[in-house]
From TrEMBL, chain B:
Gene name of this polypeptide: nifK
Catalytic activity reported: N2 + 8 reduced [2Fe-2S]-[ferredoxin] + 16 ATP + 16 H2O = H2 + 8 oxidized [2Fe-2S]-[ferredoxin] + 2 NH4(+) + 16 ADP + 16 phosphate + 6 H(+)
Cofactor(s) recorded in Swiss-Prot or TrEMBL: [8Fe-7S] cluster
This protein's UniProt keywords: ATP-binding, Iron, Iron-sulfur, Metal-binding, Nitrogen fixation, Nucleotide-binding, Oxidoreductase
Cofactor notes: Binds 1 [8Fe-7S] cluster per heterodimer.
Keyword presence, ATP-binding: yes
Organism superkingdom: Bacteria
Protein name: Nitrogenase molybdenum-iron protein beta chain
Signal peptide bounds: none
Keyword ATP-binding: yes
PROSITE patterns: NITROGENASE_1_1 (PS00699)
Length: 489, 458
């Protein structure tokens, strides 16, 4: 039985066995080996893909160093987002304040790189020493004539989710700046798609084929000017709802743009995402194009998936990802590969999210909020998973246990969104689960030996039983013969 | 091209760091703590720090890196982190059962002024620390020093907490290595063992962050120096510090606290520095250098003779951590290479700058500390182009832009394997490093050779 900290008991649930509502959206228990990050991390991952802005991290060097090139958000043009800029706050500024240094750094930075906007991220320490970042940004903005936007992402202020909110507030300041550039009647914004491994390009291509214009992708392959005119699109399509629903709500309130929540992972969710947009516009051509697109993509995809499914049928998976929306899609996508999800959890799920996870998983599935490696590895072992889907810190844990792994975090190299993403996903899962390397895992060897021994024992038992049955039969026959004989005699 | 913005003209920057050549203290402290057997590093601050440090080490070593966090919230940041720390201690011993909790502080807990000593004493008073277990801490604010300083501070805290002088000397030699790879830790042990020397080395991350796959997830892999051995180091006959910036505070403390006389040497990278290390061991222990070690040295020298013309006179730039950089500089000098630039973000001090200059001469540009970053290094390289760059993974962008090979030798390395398994210290490490350099130059020569000059034998 896996040991769970008393304070975490309500964050772990076995479907069919436990009846309580999972506790979530609370800070991690002090002392746990949590897989979670901080407010700053949340802001950074959301705003990072805006490629023609500079992202200046106001704080000690660590915050900048660890988030430098942290996600593979690709850009089709400028690549300013991939450089690491920091005020490298030292003891001196901790005592006397960092405003002067921030001002000087911003001026040096904007002078050298000529960006279209600048984001200034406030880290823990800046919140504590009380720098007036707003004032410095306003001053520099006035002097240089580009938006200079503070991001209130002090690490201790909450969870990664609060960082998403801070990022939305910062991005919202860019929205509405451009009222001139024409925008089509059937145009949307994509929110919460970050162009990992080029996924934004796949999705944009689908919408293009449908006849829908994408005004802005916030923030994948993002540009300041595009976000500036996003307020005139007709619909917001929110993919990573955990990170961007807040921005969608702000845009709805101020500009009256409705929003829908979608997921681009897996066949059903991807198709639904396209149909939802098509139906919103009630345009015959768009609807027809969408039907054609989905039909041709799914028809091309399914036979290819069957090949992978042959080997994967009946295998079990564990899923532990940042956002729960991703977890939903993973459970469904794995089902297409014939795989059952036996452990599933997220870092930031809401009560409704966990309710939904309960709905779509089988009896006996372990559902986790904000887990730690000991728990996670324990449940993986207990449930006999063959694969773990997770992020950077989970990968070596899976490998050490001798099971396959698929990255569903910001470091992945394969696009997993869309229909071609589903195929990449299937290939990656197949490669990992069926890799010959696992047969060298001592745990697997032991398990195989045990299975073999059990089989042999079973066979021996069966042979013994057969022998006994034969003997009994012979005895019976002999008896009968004797009886017959007696009768005969 | 990602680095198209880097201008060739070097202008003075005062406030801005671009593409840092360092990171912050706690990650170094975490790494040092992992080199102690059954020790769980603990990060006293908000969750993000711990997550980042674990991610960085996980990517670098491709191993599960365990560390717990005090999980600060706004409340803790206002009212202090004492209750979080006390709760952490209780939870950690209840669930993860380490022998030692090694706490590193973050800039947050430092600025709010949490007194870890007082908190740990209180936990002890409240019987929250089980008998035989230890909670220790090192002060590692991120706004001072770098990851190397953090390593130095944790190593010094380890000496402070565990090394004890009982008055009776033992015959062991204590070895304190700077921030190096587990493979290098193994190589240093190998030399001592081959010479038949009784030693105590800490930290020792071999078999911790390069552990074999055995089908299980271990919270505490089998490696790491035990608490008992570290205790005995207080009685050791002598100590050797390998490296300076990453070891000096610990070496000094062992000397003053336990009166263990300490020789401070450079990391044994290359022939000269390894000779010094071996010779020092020989003198202290009163042994003769075994033939096997001489043979290892002989092989390194032999290969260098065989292919010296491929490295001789080649120009190189070096980026990384101060102690390793000094060793690499010495290695390059041994091989007849010309070092153009030496850059580390770690504020290594004027003395370090001076020593490197003394070693390499005035022709080398040496910069450490503020604004010594990869942007600056790239500018230097644009002005005086080297044939080869030593540095961490982030240097790959510069190497690509300059179209020169990169030898990954610093922290972090996120895109290649090998550093955890093959050393660069000792004679065998020197041979490995030399072959990497030769491969880089000879691959390049093959790639660039015109058809008529493309040769079979090199």
């Amino acid at each position: 039985m896996v040991e769970v900290l008393a304070a975490r008991k309500q964050q772990v649930l076995e479907k069919g066995k436990d009846v309580f509502n999972i506790e979530c959206e609370k800070p991690s228990t002090a002392g746990s080996v949590s897989q979670r990050a901080c407010v700053f991390c949340g802001s950074r991952v959301v705003l990072y893909p805006i490629a023609d802005a500079v992202h200046l991290i106001h704080g000690p060097i660590g915050c900048a160093a660890y988030t430098w090139e942290l996600r593979g958000s690709l850009s089709s043009g400028p690549e300013l987002h991939r450089l690491s800029f920091s005020t490298d706050i030292r003891e001196h500024e901790v005592i006397y304040g960092g405003e002067k240094k921030l001002y000087a750094a911003l001026k040096e930075l904007i002078g050298a790189y000529k960006p279209n906007a600048a984001f200034v991220y406030c880290t823990c320490i800046i919140g504590l020493i009380g720098d007036d970042v707003e004032a410095v940004c306003a001053k520099v903005e006035k002097e240089v004539g580009i938006p200079v936007i503070p991001v209130h992402s002090e690490g201790f202020k909450g969870t990664k989710k609060d960082g998403y909110k801070a990022a939305c507030e910062a991005a919202f300041k860019l929205v509405g700046k451009d009222d001139i550039t024409p925008v089509s009647k059937t145009s949307i914004n994509i929110l919460g798609e970050f162009n990992l491994a080029g996924e934004t390009w796949i999705i944009k291509d689908y919408y293009k084929r449908m006849g829908v214009e994408v005004t802005a992708c916030i923030t994948g392959d993002g540009r300041v000017a595009e976000i500036g005119r996003a307020h005139r699109a007709k619909l917001n399509v929110v993919q990573c709802s955990g990170s961007m629903t807040y921005l969608a709500k702000m845009m709805e309130e101020k500009y009256g743009i409705p929003y829908i929540r979608v997921s681009y992972f897996g066949i059903e969710d991807m198709s639904k995402a396209l149909y939802d947009v098509a139906e919103y516009f009630k345009d015959e051509t768009i609807l027809h194009n969408t039907q054609e697109l989905v039909k041709s993509e799914v028809n091309a995809l399914l036979p290819k998936l069957t090949e992978y499914r042959k080997d994967l049928e009946g295998k079990k998976a564990g899923v532990y990802v940042g956002g729960s929306f991703k977890a939903f899609s993973m459970v469904k996508a794995l089902r297409h590969l014939g795989m059952e999800t036996v452990v599933v959890g997220s870092q930031t799920g809401s009560p409704e999210d966990y309710e939904y996870l309960k709905e779509i998983t089988n009896e006996g599935t372990i559902i986790l909020d904000d887990t730690n490696p000991l728990e996670l590895s324990g449940f993986i072992l207990e449930k006999g998973a063959d694969l773990l889907i997770g992020g950077v810190k989970e990968r070596p844990i899976a490998y050490k246990m001798g099971i396959g792994f698929c990255d569903h975090n910001h470091e992945r190299k394969e696009a997993l969104a869309g229909y071609e993403g589903m195929l990449n996903f299937a290939r990656e899962v197949h490669t990992s689960v069926t890799s010959p390397v696992w047969k060298y895992s001592p745990a697997r060897i032991k398990a195989a030996e045990a299975a073999q021994a059990a089989e042999a024992a079973q066979a021996a038992e069966a042979a013994q039983a057969a022998e006994a049955a034969q003997a009994a039969e012979a005895a019976q026959a002999a008896e009968a013969a004797r009886a017959g004989k007696e009768i005969l005699v | 091209m990602l680095l198209r913005h880097t201008p060739k003209e070097i202008s003075e920057r005062k406030a801005l760091t671009i593409n840092p050549a360092k990171t912050c203290q706690p990650v170094g402290a975490m790494y040092a703590a992992l080199g102690i057997h059954r020790c769980l590093p603990h990060s006293h601050g908000s969750q993000g720090c711990c997550a980042y440090h674990r991610s960085a080490l996980t990517r670098h070593y491709a191993e599960p890196i365990m560390a717990s966090t005090s999980s600060f919230t706004e409340g803790a940041s206002v009212f202090g982190g004492q209750s979080n720390m006390l709760e952490s201690i209780q939870n950690i011993f209840a669930l993860y059962d380490p022998d030692i909790i090694a706490v590193n502080t973050t800039c947050l807990s430092e600025v709010i002024g949490d007194d870890l000593k007082q908190i740990i004493n209180r936990a002890m008073g409240d019987n929250k620390i089980p008998p035989g277990k230890t909670v220790m801490y090192a002060s590692t604010p991120s706004f001072k020093g770098s990851h190397v300083t953090g390593y130095a501070n944790m190593l010094s805290a380890i000496v402070q907490n565990f090394a004890v002088a009982t008055g009776t000397r033992n015959d062991a030699i204590t070895i304190l290595p700077s921030f190096i790879e587990p493979s290098d830790m193994s190589e240093i042990k190998h030399i001592a063992e081959e010479m038949g020397i009784k030693y105590i080395m800490y930290p020792d991350t071999s078999d911790v962050v390069n552990a074999p796959m055995d089908g299980k997830f271990h919270m505490y892999p089998k490696g790491g120096t035990t608490k008992e051995l570290i205790r005995q180091s207080g009685d050791s006959r002598r100590a050797i510090a390998l490296g300076r910036v990453g070891v000096f505070p610990a070496a000094q403390l062992l000397d003053t606290k336990c009166k263990v006389k300490t020789d401070i040497l450079d990391l044994p990278i290359g022939i000269t520095a390894t000779d010094t290390f071996v010779d020092t061991l020989r003198k202290i222990a009163g042994v003769t250098v075994p033939e096997s070690i001489n043979d290892e040295r002989g092989r390194l020298v032999d290969v260098l003779c065989d292919k010296a013309q491929y490295v001789y006179g080649k120009k190189v730039s070096l980026m990384g951590d101060p102690d390793t950089l000094f060793g690499l500089a010495q290695f390059c000098k041994d091989a007849g290479m010309q070092v153009l630039h030496v850059v580390t973000g770690t504020p290594a001090g004027a003395k370090w700058d001076r020593r490197v200059k003394e070693l390499l001469g005035d022709g080398t540009i040496v910069k450490s500390g503020a604004q010594a970053d990869l942007f600056y290094l790239h500018q230097l390289m644009q002005n005086d182009k080297p044939d080869l760059l030593f540095g961490n993974t982030y240097c790959k962008y510069i190497a690509r832009d300059m179209d020169i090979p990169l030898i990954r030798t610093a922290f972090p390395i996120y895109d290649r394997m090998g550093h955890s398994y093959f050393p660069i210290t000792g004679y065998r490490g020197g041979l490995h490093l030399l072959i990497k350099v030769l491969d880089a130059f000879m691959d390049r020569q093959d790639r660039d050779a015109p058809e008529e000059k493309f040769e079979l034998v090199m």
